Amino acid sequence: MAFSNKLSLLVIFSCACLLSLAYAGNFYQDFDITWGDGRGKIVNNGQLLTLSLDKTSGSGFQSKHEYLFGKIDMQLKLVPGNSAGTVTAYYLSSQGATHDEIDFEFLGNLTGEPYTLHTNVFTQGKGNREMQFKLWFDPTKDFHTYSILWNPRHVIFMVDNVPIRDYKNLEAKGISFPKNQPMRIYSSLWNADDWATQGGLIKTDWSKAPFTAAYRNFNANACVWSSGSAKCPPMQTAVAGDNWFNQELDSTSQARMRWVQRNYMIYNYCTDGKRFPQGLPPECHMV
């Protein structure tokens, strides 16, 4: 499929759908706590959500809506202190064996040691596209904004509006891209001490439980999927604030992303020849 750089773009989906713009609300309106037996809480009149983990259970939530393309922002403050063994996951996902998924995962660590930010992209049920980073700040001291910009040409991961990764649409070269399956937003806090910290060498210290992560200032400038409605009309993106649909990284943003990857990236599947003895994934040769 060819894409225009103009501010308007015709989008036609084969399924019946209704697209509308979704904006900031509160957590009561936008999310459901889906598991954790009371360990997930919405407080402050819907302006703050917290997830907790103890030895019995973690907790999680999901969005009420599904989205097909959008700019999704969430501010998180991660588990402080000794968070080793814990994982805070924040991601978009569809359902089924051939699901699409766009992942942020925050892997905890010992007190004073940095978190690992793990990213991945699944298309048609296939992942194995991990890139990992350290952060240039302490993500437990204050809230920071973690964003996914997902449009027909790019999946861009951002931290405090700094791009750290750009997964491009290379379908014309035979590489799949998530563009047909609507996805919900999910987040969870759970125990993964069999692998999360130093490959599972460091276990969760349950004497420090409960572990708590906090969320605020959710914003979805996005297309909401509502099944059973008419096919989508053309989407006009000339409206101010709606240009995420055609957005690409300009030269300044590309330079900032290169700075992050040069200084803070600690793993890139595209350089892991031992993992792929038959050859690196094809997109690694095209980026």
Task: Report the order of strands and helices.
Answer: EEHEEEEEEEEEEEEEEEHE
Radius of gyration: 19 Å
Please bin the fraction of helical residues: under 10%
Mean pLDDT: 88
* Shape assignment: globular
Total number of helical segments?
2
Describe this structure in words.
The chain contains two helices and 18 strands. Strands 2, 4, 5, 7, 12, 13, 14 and 16 form an eight-stranded antiparallel beta sheet that branches. The chain has an eight-stranded antiparallel beta sheet with strand order 3-6-15-8-9-10-11-18. With 287 residues, it is mainly β. The two termini are 19 Å apart. Mean pLDDT is 88; it is low at 1-21 and 228-234. It has helices spanning 27-30, 251-264; strands at residues 8-9, 21-22, 31-35, 40-43, 48-53, 59-63, 66-77, 86-93, 101-107, 116-122, 131-133, 144-150, 154-159, 162-168, 184-191, 211-225, 235-236, 265-268. One of its GO terms (biological process) is cell wall organization. Keywords: Apoplast, Cell wall, Cell wall biogenesis/degradation, Disulfide bond, Glycoprotein, Glycosidase, Hydrolase, Secreted, Signal, Transferase.
Characteristics:
287 residues; mainly beta; 6% helix; disordered N terminus; xyloglucan:xyloglucosyl transferase activity; transferase; hydrolase; Beta-glucanase-like; cell wall
